[in-house]
Amino acid sequence: MKKYVQGSAVARVLRDRNAALFLTGVVVSGFGSSAMWLTSGIWVKSLTGSDSLAALTVCAMWLPSMAGPLLGTVADRVRRRPLLVAANVTMTALLPLLIAANSPDRIWLLFAVLVLYGVNGVVQDAAEAALVATALDAELLGDFNGLRMTANEGMKLLAPLTGAGLYARFGGPSVALLDAGTFLVAAGIFALVRVAEERPRRARPRAARASLRGVAAETGEGVRHLWGSPVLRPLVLAGAATMFLASLSSSTLYAVVDKGLGHAPGFIGVLYAVQGAGSVTVGVLSGPLLRRLPARVFGALGVALFAAAVCLRAAPSDAVAFGCAFAVGAGLPCVLIATLTSVQRATPAPLLGRVAATANTLLFAPNAVALAVGSGLVAVVDYRVTLPVTGAMGLVVAGWLFLSPPGHDPSGTPWAATPPPRTSAPTPGPRPTPTPRDTGAVE
Prior knowledge:
Elements: H1 6-15, H2 17-48, H3 51-62, H4 68-77, H5 80-94, H6 107-135, H7 141-170, H8 172-191, H9 206-210, H10 212-228, H11 232-250, H12 253-260, H13 267-292, H14 295-312, H15 318-346, H16 352-364, H17 366-380, H18 383-403
Helix pairs in contact: 2-3, 2-6, 2-7, 2-8, 3-6, 4-6, 4-10, 4-16, 5-6, 5-8, 6-16, 7-8, 7-13, 7-15, 10-16, 11-14, 11-15, 11-16, 11-17, 11-18, 13-15, 14-15, 14-18, 15-16
């Protein structure tokens, strides 16, 4: 097997025209989305004075992810590149409607657009995961997904400040227009991607495909593939459990900062910045590590690092708090990157949109449950009990994933199987060093 050093692998991704375009699109659209994510809550709070309605803005954007398996079917029924372009253009047209959301009786308009925003995001994520697996060399997927994580985390550090500043100076419509502009730029970037896609094969007559039974059957195909894979199932289950524990532990953070460290709540922002630095670091390292380790081992090591940091977070020390924040940021994304990369490598192209969307739903749906449970627990259980117990559970998850049967691991390591053949045509045009032929989340 070829040996790569970290620098050359990252350079190969950035020299690859399609990879560079995808990453640019992620940075541009991620900037606008992160700004809008923060501003929507401030906007609702300013118009209504209601904390609960402001909190519901996040729920409105996340709610469509529960229908991920169904929405992912859309990405498998059409060619993915035109779908990405159309989805970005659609949001460019929708967001300016928020200019009219200037009074409490029109707040429904903001929530309606946010729900559509969430639907669009699920479809885009599924289409992007499938198109990346077709447009890029298989050996670059781990590096690309890591750099994508790095780009997303970088935007989470910069965009909210920009959005808050714009809102304070010009109001909510200015942020909506900024976000619309980023979607338009992203549409143009995705239109430049060079990939020859075959039209999806029609396995069923048009009438059958349009029926509820036909849609359910296609959705079920993606679910069965994911659940039936000895490689993907343990990764997704471990990732879902880890995300649950991450959200559970995050509910104690205010208590840790206040009671344990003796700082004002604003200190949490500093910890999140350090955590983001950890995610940026592992994003750069994930590609080389995925070439040397099976995906399940890479994911298990990340979960173990996250769990150990959660255990130590109860210590009343600023230095320990900074170290734990960095370790959480570095450990938590590992299982997400490993899962997405494995989904892209172990799934036939015609199913990839559904499988990727199903995996995302299973990974991130536990967040909502954990936040509700954690908010109740923090009121009755001391954080010095909650954190060690949560960390211990994380170590159990890491051990289970590490000891799970390897199956045919598609991670590109010496004991991996050859990735399944793709049905899409190869990318035309020159490619750097052709070879044989995967956000956004931290706690």
